[in-house]
Write a structure and sequence with these properties.
This protein is an alpha/beta fold. It is about 20% helix and about 30% strand. It folds into two domains: about 10-95, Beta Barrel (Elongation Factor Tu (Ef-tu), domain 3), CATH 2.40.30.10; about 100-230, 3-Layer(aba) Sandwich (Rossmann fold). The model has no long low-confidence stretch (mean pLDDT about 95). The structure holds flavin-adenine dinucleotide and FE2/S2 (inorganic) cluster (FES). FE2/S2 (inorganic) cluster (FES) binds near residues 237, 239, 240, 243 and 253.
Length: about 270
Amino acid sequence: MDNIYYPRDAVLTDIKEETPTIKTFCFKLDEPLFFKAGQFMQLTIPGLGEAPFTPSSHPGKLTEMEITILRTGRVTDALHYEVKVGDHLGLRGPFGKGYPLDKFKGKDVLIVGGGVGLAPLRSLIYAIFDRIDDFKKISICYGAKTPEDQCFTDEFKEWEKKPHTSLHLTLDRPHPDWEGTVGLVPCLLEKDIIGVDIKNSYVVSCGPQIMLKFVTYKLLEVGFKPEQIYLSMNRRMSCGLGKCARCNIGPYYLCKDGPDMCYADIMDYPNVFE
Ligand SMILES: Cc1cc2nc3c(=O)[nH]c(=O)nc-3n(C[C@H](O)[C@H](O)[C@H](O)COP(=O)(O)OP(=O)(O)OC[C@H]3O[C@@H](n4cnc5c(N)ncnc54)[C@H](O)[C@@H]3O)c2cc1C
Ligand code: FES
């Protein structure tokens, strides 16, 4: 498939309900598709439109893809309420650069997600588990509003069993069924909780803009340097190819140069967290 403007055929094989507002859509592809964890796709619903999403599945699965989607507006409402198993949708991509996994080699990796932001990170987590000996400690920090709003809970035990991997969870508010940490995601980033060697780590974070902002400030406060922090800047995008200028921060086009950006590269531009 050479024409990046032409959506490839993707048959919907399953729809899994993760939370009341988030579903995972499973696709069978007509031919193998190579993507790196963190690269994104444009998903087309014929007759309605397309929107950008980062696959949540294992990048090594070449003819299957999962995309985990929060219901938030026109396209995502149609995905949640109108499409059904067996429907043919379209996928364009992959776009963007993906996470710089080779750069993380020999280091601890701190993964920080909020809400549906764990979806792109799940793909990264699978990619890391495939070559886990390349990294030192892996620490996964994840926050959601309530127990019902947590994604991928059925995989948490498996993740924690991986060598030198730890999982830290928090909920925004107290809940009768929750005995764990309560507070917004930055509360997990205290030095004695995160479980990584701050000087020898990289951080990757994905979640709502407001979360990214306060996660970044907390990381800087506990001693991380801007060069160690990668943020998934999943903003409004259109062409995905660096042509329409809808997604820029300073000289960077998030669709082409990101969407995962090193904070050191973007920190001086005024619209980083807008
Ligand atoms: C590179 C990239 C990767 C993404 N990956 C995922 C993913 O894996 N899972 C997922 O659920 N979503 C993801 N998103 C966000 C997703 O693209 C939007 O939620 C979607 O485009 C909304 O389309 P809509 O027609 O349903 O909403 P619209 O009707 O267009 O908008 C509804 C509301 O959502 C807000 N909104 C729209 N787009 C975004 C956005 N990009 N970020 C924050 N708020 C937005 C609007 O401001 C509005 O308030 C990603 C976005 C980008 C750019
Ligand atoms: S989405 Fe068009 S330039 Fe980035």
